[in-house]
Amino acid sequence: MADYEDWDAGRAADIIAGLVGLEGATLPILHAVQATFGYVPREVVPMVAEALNMSRAEVHGCITFYHDFRAEPAGRRVLKLCRAEACQAAGADALHQQVLGELGVSWHGTTADGGVTVEPVFCLGLCACGPSAMLDDAPMARMTAAGLRAALRAGDGAPMAARVAI
Amino acid sequence: MTVTVFVPRDMMAVALGADQVAASIGADAERRGADICIVRNGSRGLQWLEPLVEVATPGGRIAYGNVAPSDVEGLLDSGFLEGRPHALCVGRPQDMPYLARQHRLTFERCGITDPLSMEAYRANGGLAGLQRALTMAPGAIVEAVKASGLRGRGGAGFPAGIKWNTVGQAQADRKYVICNADEGDSGTFADRLLMEGDPFCLIEGMVIAGIATGATKGLVYLRSEYPVAAAIFSQAIAIARREGMIGASVLGSPHAFELELRIGAGAYICGEETSMLESLEGKRAIVRAKPPIPALHGFMGRPTLVNNVMTLAAVPWILAHGGQAYADYGMGRSRGTLPIQLGGNIKRGGLIEYAFGISLREVIEDFGGGTASGRPVRAVQVGGPLGAYLPAHMLDVPLDYEALAGAQAMLGHGGIVVFDDSVDMARQARFAFEFCAVESCGKCTPCRIGATRGVEAIDKIVAGQQREKNLAVVQDLCELMTDGSLCAMGGLTPLPVQSALRHFAGDFAELAVA
Predict the structure, then answer these.
(1) Residue contacts between A and B (CB atoms, under 8 Å)
(2) Contact residues, chain B, for A125 at CB < 8 Å
(3) Which residues of chain A lie closer than 8 angstroms to B342, CB-CB?
(4) ipTM of the assembly?
(5) Rounded distance between C-alpha atoms, residue A79 and residue A102, angstroms
């Protein structure tokens, strides 16, 4: 579970200034912004566009094209469940239905208490011991519903990440 | 005397508790006053045994498989620091048939050495290829790669030496070497294992490629789904720079080579080289039309060598041992070794580096031990989500680019996903279209619209609505996508769909509609 900073235009400007010299800096900047604030706030779009001599539409296009970037904050934890073939062969589909049902969400949804956002991922490279998943930055293999419940419970006591209300 | 204990840090080992195991071993040993040193090595590729903990003893390394944190105390009680027997003991790794039968060239050090120790890298044959390359003319390096018969391991199988030659001959103010580490195919993890277990090998291959082609800058495009590989590889770049392996003067030579790690953002299409170039340039990853080819007009409009991790990582061995030694492995026009990745419903999944020509059956039965569920194998998908499904009676096909093409399948990046007899192949065909619809870059119509129409048509077939007409629609769509798509995403999605229809027609039979 990551601790994110509140939106701060000055902080965002520093991030952009630190990376703007890279060739094709858009993705490195967007990754750094999201790692700092937990999402890519819309206020950042004109700042990136200005720094990289792109149109705002082009920056917006990048944010929406790539699955990783989110325009809104996620739940306190992000659970990525692998939906690719190797995990399907290991029974992932049935497990996913059970997990989604227990959490009361559908794909890309966040639980009512804001605790967990569930997203599909297509392959984590853990194909020999499926089903696999990633809870925040922690990879999981041979995942079961019970194992996942325990992992989610283990994070309950941790402090809530700072969030920005938009 | 200090006892060295190896606890893998590869993402699979971590996913199965290796960090906690390492912490427990450290804490428990300290409490007992045992003098140990824990090395976080890479995986040997015996993925089903992770975390595979090894202890260095005077008689060689002794391994213990599937070690959980709760096993640590018992292991120490039974004298595992002296390599004593225990229920989890699997003996000397190199004696295990799974490893002993392989032809480890690219993966010769993976799992054996500390991935971040340059000393261990040198002591185990590392840098020999680069040192050799530094004594050769660029054209001679290209000739060695040509002689090896090395073909692009990303899936297309294009002869590497020819591509290197094209970039080498191109004139420009600067050139680039770009490593495609966007290993998005389900069932593949060889790039990950190498970048986590022997990152200097990839760096060495890229530096050699730079010298051979006249490129002075390298970029590695790694997928964001591999955070452990990103952490290890970025440390490796810093160490390589400190040790003079990269920088203004490679190993004291007049050659300069800089290297940068870039992280993708969850788009499967970035495994396609032109969309990866767009992504690296900071744009939406929309596929480019070819020509111009990236070898002449690639990153930032400059001549760019784009190769897969496995292609570049094969190069140090080829330079150290000669092109012919590599070409001596393999069959037909597929020379050298193939890092085979075995996954899905399989008892012993992992990495098997083997000369081209081994049959699917040998891989699945002899290495893999059959399905994890114990049920019969029904279908095997080779080559990722764009690869064909083969039925159990076709498993004698050899793993070779041309042999698989002859079976209306493809080798791709060498991933093999095994399904047992509970698989519903209509569902798998639907998924192939669904995946294409989600991951299509949207540039060309056959892929963007065809995939969505394909999902709809298969749903109708399964629901028994105008079954014959909708089967014809699917075949029509497949033909159009194959012939009319700009890249392999749309062009190869029909492969899994049509193979499912061809070999498992019964699964598409009309269901009784209530």
Answers:
(1) 159
(2) 11-12, 183, 188-189, 192, 225-226
(3) 128
(4) 0.96
(5) 14
Which of 3.40.30.10, 3.40.640.10, 3.40.50.2300, 3.20.20.70 would CATH assign to domain A77-154?
3.40.30.10
What is the reported pTM?
0.96
Tokens of B217: 């800058």
**Which runs of E-coded beta strand occur in B365-439?**
377-382, 389-391, 415-420
Say whether residue A66 is in contact with chain B using an 8 A CB cutoff.
Answer: yes
Which residues on B lie below 8 Å from A90 (Cβ)?
344-345, 372
Whether the Cβ atoms of residue B178 and residue B299 lie closer than 8 Å to each other: yes
The confidence score (pLDDT) of residue A1 equals: 58
SS (H, E, C) B125-168: CCCHHHHHHCCCCHHHHHHHHHHHCCECCCCCCCEHHHHHHHHH
Q: Is the dihedral of CA B48, B37, B231, B129 positive or negative?
A: negative
Among the partner residues A65, A122, A141, nearest to B15 by beta-carbon distance: A141
Q: What is the mean pLDDT of chain B?
A: 97
Q: Do A129 and B48 touch (CB under 8 A)?
A: yes
Select from 1.10.150.170, 3.40.605.10, 3.90.550.10, 1.20.1440.230 the CATH code of B425-508: 1.20.1440.230
